[in-house]
Amino acid sequence: MNWYLKVLKQYADFKSRASRTEYWMFVLFNLIFASVAMIIDNVLGIAFAGTGVGIFYSLFVLALLIPCFAVTVRRLHDTGKSGRFILLALIPVIGTIWLFVLLAKKSSPGENNYGENPNFSYTYNESTDEMQLIDHSVDSSTEDSVILIIVIWMAFSRFFWALVPLFTESQYSPGWYELVNMLMGIIWAFVPFGLAFAVKSKTKQIVLFILGGIYLLYSLFDVLNSFLNGASAQGGIM
């Protein structure tokens, strides 16, 4: 939570740097809080018709919109890249993979054009009358584990998202739900692939590739099934 609160304190800071740990811890807690907000909307029955999300989720997204963009730009700065690289997200598939690889890269050593390395800071030691270097960095294996946890959380959320219409069908518009479900499935399938190139552990890379493969196969099956159902419906009409 300290990392999450740090991002909130730097609400609109688009100039400095953010470490890999800071960024991915923020992403992890964001996913958790967003899921909780969506569940509250559905439990209270205040979700907007045909969407499954309501006022709590909408307020959460609006409140965190600026800090999300800000910490992403700072994370790019930390790798030595311009914040404009965030526009890679607009390029389907390839741009998404590239952006996630950049966001998962380790900090560029020392000072760069955007400031000092956020993993290190100096403090004055009165007993020795000298400046002391403090290491704030987290072990790479811990950072990689956080990334893996996020991808696993995404897997569970995808499973939850697929089952939701079975229990709250009245809250979802079938046409809207099927389209978003297919598109998000395909896009999310490439997130584990992109992150796999950034982590160091071979075991975690294999797990990420396997999860990405499962995502992709499930999504392609979903698209094919929808296509066949649509073709069958048209054939029945004719």
From TrEMBL:
<dbReference type="Pfam" id="PF05656">
    <property type="entry name" value="DUF805"/>
</dbReference>
<feature type="transmembrane region" description="Helical">
    <location>
        <begin position="21"/>
        <end position="40"/>
    </location>
</feature>
<feature type="transmembrane region" description="Helical">
    <location>
        <begin position="85"/>
        <end position="104"/>
    </location>
</feature>
<keyword id="KW-0472">Membrane</keyword>
<feature type="transmembrane region" description="Helical">
    <location>
        <begin position="146"/>
        <end position="167"/>
    </location>
</feature>
<feature type="transmembrane region" description="Helical">
    <location>
        <begin position="46"/>
        <end position="73"/>
    </location>
</feature>
<dbReference type="GO" id="GO:0005886">
    <property type="term" value="C:plasma membrane"/>
</dbReference>
<keyword id="KW-1133">Transmembrane helix</keyword>
<feature type="transmembrane region" description="Helical">
    <location>
        <begin position="205"/>
        <end position="228"/>
    </location>
</feature>
<keyword id="KW-0812">Transmembrane</keyword>
<dbReference type="InterPro" id="IPR008523">
    <property type="entry name" value="DUF805"/>
</dbReference>
<feature type="transmembrane region" description="Helical">
    <location>
        <begin position="179"/>
        <end position="199"/>
    </location>
</feature>
<protein>
    <submittedName>
        <fullName>Uncharacterized membrane protein YhaH (DUF805 family)</fullName>
    </submittedName>
</protein>
